[in-house]
Amino acid sequence: MNAPFAKVYVIDAKGHLLGRLASVIAKLALNGQKVVVVRCEEMNVSGSFFRNKIKLQNYLRKRCISNPKRGPFHFRAPSRIFYRALRGMIPHKTARGEAALGRVKVFEGVPPPYDKMKRMVIPRALRVINLKPGRKFTSLGRMATEVGWKYQDILTTLESKRKVRAQAYYERKKALANLRAKAVSAKAAELAPIKEQLAQFGH
Known about the structure:
The protein is mainly alpha-helical. It has eight helices and five strands, in the order E-H-E-E-H-H-H-E-H-E-H-H-H.
């Protein structure tokens, strides 16, 4: 991904395929870019729900028989499932890989302050672009809920409140933009000679 360097990329994971998104973010992080991924529970995985659930349950069975406390540790939250996939694409046992993972933050929902920041998508990881129409897919949130993630209802409540606030902000912003446009058009005749003078000076 040939992306310009920014202070931080806030990526909305809704509708993205897990593996493709992880590969893009891994490369960005290794190149020194800070990345925040929000709405991990809305991420998609190709394949039917039943197939993906069986694969996830096979993974959850893997443990140290003599002492399960030693790991591996199976996190149930969608953000941690994604983080685990991302970690596999980064040499996390080296200093460079550890630093790269430190540049990545993952969240369910859109917590502050990222709810007031511009979010972006990664076209090459979007399901609608990469998955053939008619193919089955499942959401990461549903899979996580099936294996023990307990915060789906809480997150749904918080997200509905956030969307109401976002809609109110958007309506207010639109109204102010309309007022500004009307004010500019009302004073256009008065400002015309001033604009002509400024144009002579290259403004």
